[in-house]
Automatic annotation (TrEMBL):
Protein task: Key enzyme of fatty acid beta-oxidation. Able to isomerize both 3-cis (3Z) and 3-trans (3E) double bonds into the 2-trans (2E) form in a range of enoyl-CoA species, with a preference for (3Z)-enoyl-CoAs over (3E)-enoyl-CoAs. The catalytic efficiency of this enzyme is not affected by the fatty acyl chain length.
This protein's name: Enoyl-CoA delta isomerase 1, mitochondrial
Single Gene Ontology BP annotation: fatty acid beta-oxidation
Domain of life of the native organism: Eukaryota
Keywords (A to Z) from UniProt: Acetylation, Fatty acid metabolism, Isomerase, Lipid metabolism, Mitochondrion, Transit peptide
GO molecular function, one term: delta(3)-delta(2)-enoyl-CoA isomerase activity
Reactions performed catalytically: (3Z)-octenoyl-CoA = (2E)-octenoyl-CoA; (3Z)-dodecenoyl-CoA = (2E)-dodecenoyl-CoA; (2E)-tetradecenoyl-CoA = (3Z)-tetradecenoyl-CoA; (3Z)-decenoyl-CoA = (2E)-decenoyl-CoA
Length: 291
């Protein structure tokens, strides 16, 4: 503030009609609003946090949103929060998955930061000792499905929304850790069928194979079910819970700890391939035309 004030005073002296008054400073700071937050956090009286993805129109996961989500999880861990409910501010989309614009005609440095942030945020969410629930209040394709799968429990608003890892439909292969998350939820057989077909499941279909745990008819019910799931852990000794979660999720955790660099390299090599870039460009065009 002191530097801003000094600069303004110099400017005011030059123009002589301006003074570095509180009113002037307020006008100056109003003209430069802080960028909107992409993730909001509300902690209720019971100590349960609702973490809301808020990047209209479709909560596509760019570096900024992923970074904010990672920081939010770390902060909630530091504050000993009793539970995390992950949801969306949109009425129709939980998350459209990775932001394709981060991958289309990228600068190498940005691409690397994007993928590393995704890896780190995913690991934070997947392994956090805090009980996690996804309240899926809209479509959740690809990376959106990954976020939901990384939580311990999934409640989805139905029946009209869809969820799944649809990568093969886009001509790409979901990274191994995406696959581990799907296997965690539905078992190897169902995961193989879902992933090879890149199937997007209706809410009812997702419920039938265990991709989600509960179907509800609106967001309020989803939040209430999530709170109920989290409340059961009040009676469970936290250390036992934490160690059990860490142990049962060992495959995914170990995979990322041991393979993050190779995974980054594979992603970087793949994305810059001319045929992938061409495909991404066509996909973006198709999304615009389908409007
Ligand atoms: C994908 C190739 C990656 C290459 C790298 C290779 C391998 C590494 C592995 C990478 C793993 C990737 C996993 C992913 O998550 S990839 C992303 C996959 N996501 C999708 O395919 C979803 C696409 N979106 C939709 O299906 C729909 O948007 C919707 C979520 C069902 C919502 O529909 P609707 O409400 O009708 O909204 P619109 O379709 O009109 O979209 C509004 C607006 O948003 C833009 N948009 C949508 N999705 C994305 C996205 N994922 N990234 C960036 N932008 C997106 C869309 O283009 C519209 O923009 P305009 O308003 O400007 O037209």
């Amino acid at each position: 503030m002191a530097v801003v004030c000094r600069n303004l005073r110099a400017f005011a002296q030059k123009t002589s009609s301006l003074r570095c008054t509180p009113n002037f400073l307020r006008l100056y700071s109003q003209s430069k609003p802080a960028p909107p937050k992409l993730v909001t956090v509300d902690v209720d009286k019971a100590g349960v946090a609702t973490v809301t993805l808020d990047r209209p129109p479709v909560n596509s996961l760019n570096t900024g949103l992923l970074e904010e989500l990672g920081v939010a999880i770390k902060d909630l861990e530091a504050n000993k929060t009793r539970g995390i409910i992950l949801t969306s501010s949109s009425n129709s989309v939980f998350s459209a998955g990775l932001d394709i614009l981060e991958m289309y005609e990228p600068k190498k440095q940005n691409l690397s930061l994007f993928w590393t942030t995704l890896q780190n945020t995913w690991l934070s969410l997947y392994r956090t000792s805090i009980p996690t629930v996804a309240a899926i209040n809209g479509h959740a394709p690809a990376g959106g499905c990954l976020l939901a799968l990384s939580c311990e429990y999934r409640v989805m608003v139905g029946p009209k929304f869809t969820i799944g890892l649809n990568e093969t439909q886009l001509g790409i292969v979901a990274p191994q850790w995406f696959m581990i998350c799907m296997k965690d939820a539905v078992g190897r057989r169902q995961a193989e069928m879902a992933l090879t077909a890149g199937k997007m499941f209706s809410t009812q279909e997702a419920l039938n194979i265990g991709l989600i745990d509960k179907m509800v008819s609106n967001k309020e019910e989803a939040i209430a079910e999530a709170q109920k799931f989290i409340a059961q852990f009040a009676k469970i000794p936290p250390l036992a819970r934490r160690m059990t979660k860490e142990s049962i999720r060992q495959e995914g955790i170990k995979y990322m700890e041991e393979n993050a660099i190779d995974d980054l390299k594979a992603f970087m090599d793949l994305v810059v391939q001319p045929n992938i870039q061409k495909g991404l460009g066509m996909y973006l065009e198709a999304m615009k035309k389908s409007k």
